[in-house]
């Protein structure tokens, strides 16, 4: 009887190289889309809620503005309103869908990027309140 030699069913996989030069072991991906989506939403709401606002104080026919602190509930409500308004304005007369615009707005707000409508408006509200202290 002759002995049979068995060949391996799967050849050894070669090491995968990035651009044929670098090993992929050293590559780290820091993409916000790989985070927990609920955490991105929470971070966006936290970052886009103004901490300080200004209100109208009127006495004897004269009206002036006074800086006031914002309650936590109002901060959350205003943050959600700013995020929705930013997504709506970005999608208006644009080829991007409202879902894509909302995703972009949430990601930018979670990062604290000034590309976000909500972050821009929050900074503007806080700047006006600071000038009215």
TrEMBL record:
One of its GO terms (cellular component) is ribonucleoprotein complex. Keywords: Ribonucleoprotein, Ribosomal protein. Residues 31-133 form the Small ribosomal subunit protein uS7 domain. Pfam families: Ribosomal_S7. The keyword RNA-binding does not apply. InterPro entries: Ribosomal_uS7, Ribosomal_uS7_dom, Ribosomal_uS7_dom_sf. One of its GO terms (biological process) is translation. Belongs to the universal ribosomal protein uS7 family. This is Small ribosomal subunit protein uS7 domain-containing protein. It comes from Pygocentrus nattereri. The lineage of its organism: Eukaryota, Metazoa, Chordata, Craniata, Vertebrata. The gene is RPS5.
